[in-house]
């Protein structure tokens, strides 16, 4: 599965996926065979962190 490279598009994509299809970031990663630390790193670079309680990047 290819995910968006642009951090702002990735942010929107991830929050939509988490809201609509997955209970957690870990579930997204396992289901799609993606290392979520790369996603977290890209989004951290633009000031967003994953909030497990809200299940989204804020």
Helix-strand topology string: HHHEE
Counting DSSP E segments of at least 2 residues, the number of strands comes to 2
Number of helices: 3
Strand numbers in spatial order across the main sheet: 1-2
Distance between the termini: 24 Å
Overall outline: globular
Low-pLDDT stretches:
none
Radius of gyration, in Å, reads 10 Å
What is the residue-mean pLDDT, rounded to a whole number?
97
Question: How does the helix and strand content classify structurally?
Answer: mainly alpha
Oligomer: single chain
**Beta content:** 5-15%
Helix content: 55-70%
Report on the biggest sheet. Answer: 2 strands, antiparallel
Describe, in short, the structure shown.
Helices cover 55% and strands 7% of the residues.
Outline the secondary-structure elements.
Elements: H1 7-21, H2 25-32, H3 36-44, E1 50-51, E2 56-57
Antiparallel strand pairs: 1-2
């Amino acid at each position: 599965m290819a995910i968006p490279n642009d951090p702002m598009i990735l942010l929107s994509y991830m929050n939509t996926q988490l809201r609509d299809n997955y209970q957690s970031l870990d579930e997204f990663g396992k289901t799609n065979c993606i290392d979520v630390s790369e996603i977290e790193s890209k989004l951290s670079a633009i000031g967003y962190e994953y909030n497990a309680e809200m299940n989204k990047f804020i």
